[in-house]
Amino acid sequence: xxxxxxxxxxxxxxxxxxxxxxxxxxxxxxxxxxxxxxxxxxxxxxxxxxxxxxxxxxxxxxxxxxxxxxxxxxxxxxxxxxxxxxxxxxxxxxxxxxxxxxxxxxxxxxxxxxxxxxxxxxxxxxxxxxxxxxxxxxxxxxxxxxxxxxxxxxxxxxxxxxxxxxxxxxxxxxxxxxxxxxxxxxxxxxxxxxxxxxxxxxxxxx
Length: 206
Ligand SMILES: NC(=O)c1ccc[n+]([C@@H]2O[C@H](COP(=O)([O-])OP(=O)(O)OC[C@H]3O[C@@H](n4cnc5c(N)ncnc54)[C@H](OP(=O)(O)O)[C@@H]3O)[C@@H](O)[C@H]2O)c1
Known about the structure:
- The structure is a single chain.
- The chain is of the alpha/beta class.
- 32% of the residues lie in helices and 21% in strands.
- The protein contains six helices and ten strands, in the order E-H-E-E-E-H-E-H-E-H-E-E-E-H-E-H.
- The protein has helices spanning 11-22, 65-75, 107-114, 129-134, 151-163, 177-192; strands at 3-7, 26-31, 45-49, 58-61, 83-86, 119-123, 136-137, 140-141, 143-148, 167-170.
- It has an eight-stranded mixed β-sheet, with helices on both faces.
- The longest helix has 16 residues, at 177-192.
- NADP nicotinamide-adenine-dinucleotide phosphate binds at residues 8-13, 32-33, 50, 62-65, 67, 70-71, 87-89, 125, 127-129, 184.
- Residues 8-13, 32-33, 50, 62-65, 67, 70-71, 87-89, 125, 127-129, 184 line the site of NADP nicotinamide-adenine-dinucleotide phosphate (NAP).
């Protein structure tokens, strides 16, 4: 059984906790502040506050890209040896037109540069949260695209995805994160202008 620490309790943190629960993982959820706030607590997870030790072998950065630097500042040295899952779409949401990373880079590449001892895997950024929580996208099982340079890390992420009843498709090395982030960007823009729904999005047919 795998163990996972999810940093962030928003839409994606919650959806990925559902995924991890379906996969039978040990779940730690890291909140920004102590206390449940407006969100209800899961009975199947341990809770911590940002800065606490991370108990998961897999660590999900389920925070906005703008907040990743804060999180890495807290955890940089403690992420050594972990599989770090970057789910972000680094979009300037004030314009829906600009990236927050250089056009020849990606959020995943920027994050990997900051935490050289960790194995960064890009995954889940091209899935809306609802399709992860339900396990379906339209009439098909939800497909999760991923990319990374560390084969063992990708095996662990694929195992999590498949154990949760989702389909995993390895898109290649971490350099493919740029294309995955472009896909996520386009999907969000299409939903924002009502050409698709936040409950569905792109799918990849077998
Ligand atoms: N929404 C989607 O369907 C979707 C799909 C694919 C990828 N993504 C990506 O997933 C990531 C999370 O998105 P989301 O939709 O889940 O966002 P969200 O619902 O706004 O939740 C963001 C979470 O990050 C926490 N947070 C914000 N700033 C923080 C900081 N400086 N330190 C620690 N925690 C901080 C928030 O804490 P508080 O509750 O205390 O504010 C909240 O728990 C983003 O990178 C996004 O691009 C989202």
